[in-house]
Every structure is written in structure tokens, then in C-alpha cells.
Amino acid sequence: MSLTLYYHPLSSFCWKALIGLYEADVAFTPRVVNLGDPAERAAFQAVWPLAKFPVLRDEAAGRTIPESSIIIDYLAQTQAGAASLIPADPDRALQAHLIDRLIDSYIHLPFQQIVGERLRPEGGKDAFGVAQNRALIAQGYDLIGPMIEGPWALGEGFTLADCAALPALYYADYAVPLAGHPALSAYLERLKARPSVARVLAQAEPFFQYFPLKDG
Ligand SMILES: N[C@@H](CCC(=O)N[C@@H](CS)C(=O)NCC(=O)O)C(=O)O
């Protein structure tokens, strides 16, 4: 099999890539990386020096593709089943990329910062930074909510924007509850019911005990 995905089942950015792979029914070899294991980390670093996942390796093409959004772009360019993840119409493709960028920048990354804060030792905490990131996520919800056309981000077609939205909304909900955003909450529920997403969530379930915000 030509494609290998380096990932971890609990990793939110890996969910974005996995949803794309499952949506398109692309065959790949899953390679779970335990970054806590020095040998595994070193081996992964040889594939991608930043040692951040997901990373897709296309052995036949001799290419290493990092970055969750770029992996979806690459799949759309190289796998017939994945083509629709990026709309053919250039304006709609821009919109898919815009939503992906906004979600990553103003929901997903601030959430990641909040989780990082939880893992810091006493004395290294940054309550001001956490408040800033919570405010950013709330702004992100206000921004993204009206952009969701329904049922999916760009209407009837499931795209990169939806692959990005699920992990960001699913996890950020723990830090900044979506309760005051009924349209986004309903969108998240539709996403969770999607078979590709349900598969990703089921695979993450055994690892969820390690999610630092699981108890609020
Ligand atoms: N911009 C990257 C972000 C990737 C990222 O931050 N991945 C996290 C997991 S969700 C990671 O590898 N963390 C491990 C670390 O930072 O040591 C993407 O979209 O793929």
C-alpha cells in the first residue's frame, strides 16, 4: 500500500486528516506514533523533523505531506474519491480553505493552547493567556456560526471545511461550551453522526481517558 498515515487516534489535527481519508475511502497504512516513547519520537522525527502529526507518506510518489489541511489538498489532487473534498469551483474552493483557516486559527489553535496550559507545571501557569484563548474561541464561534450553510459548511457537499470543523468544535466545546450557539451545536451533532466521523470518534474512545479537559 502506497500511503501511510503517521498519527495518534486522540490527536485533534489527525482527526481532520482521518475524516478526509475515511470520507474518500482511501486505503492507507495507519501508523500510530507514541511521542512519549523516545525511540518512536526519533523515528517519526526522521520522517518529519517537527514531529507533529498528522503526516502522510506517499511511498510511490516519494513524497512526505505534513499539515492536516495540506493532506486533504493532496488527497483531493491524487485520489479520485477525495476530489470533492475541495470544490471544483475556484470561489467555493476558496471558501472551503477560508473556513478551514478560520477554524484552525480562531478555534482549534486557541483550544490547543488551553490544553497545553493544563499540562504546565505549577508556577508556569498563564491564566491571562487562557482567558485570551477562551475569548478568541468565543469570537471564532460568532464568526463561523453564520458561515455554515447547512447541512455542511458549504451546503450539500462535505468538504475540507467540515473535516476541519469537527475536531475543532468537538474539543473546543470542552473549553468554551457551544451551548449559546444552537446552530453550531446542531452542526456539531450532524458531524458526529456522519459515518467517517463516528469511526474516528470510536477509535479515539479508548484513549479519551488521557484527554486533559475530559473532566472540565
Ligand atoms: N498545523 C498542524 C498542527 C499539528 C499539531 O499541532 N499536531 C499535534 C497533535 S493535535 C502534535 O503533533 N502535537 C505533538 C507535539 O506538539 O509534540 C496541522 O494542521 O497538522
Q: Summary?
A:
This protein is an alpha+beta fold and 216 residues long.
Describe this structure in words.
- This protein is of the alpha+beta class.
- The chain has two domains: 3-85, Glutaredoxin (3-Layer(aba) Sandwich); 90-194, Glutathione S-transferase Yfyf (Class Pi), Chain A, domain 2, CATH 1.20.1050.10.
- Helix content is 55%, strand content 8%.
- The chain has helices spanning 12-23, 38-47, 68-78, 90-119, 127-144, 160-175, 182-193, 195-204; strands at residues 3-7, 29-32, 55-58, 63-66.
- Strands 2-1-3-4 form a four-stranded mixed sheet, with helices on one face.
- α1 packs parallel to α3 (68-78).
- It starts with a strand and ends in a 12-residue tail after the last helix.
- The model has no long low-confidence stretch (mean pLDDT 96).
- The protein binds glutathione.
- Residues 11-13, 35, 52-54, 67-69 line the site of glutathione (GSH).
In round numbers, the mean pLDDT is 96
Number of alpha- plus pi-helical segments? 8
Enumerate the distinct ligands. Answer: glutathione
Q: How many strand elements? A: 4
Distance between the termini: 41 Å
Tell me about the largest β-sheet.
Answer: 4 strands, mixed
Q: What value does the Rg take, in angstroms?
A: 17 Å
Strand order of the largest sheet: 2-1-3-4
Features:
216 residues; alpha+beta; Glutaredoxin; Glutathione S-transferase Yfyf (Class Pi), Chain A, domain 2; 2 domains; four-stranded mixed sheet; 4 strands; globular; binds glutathione
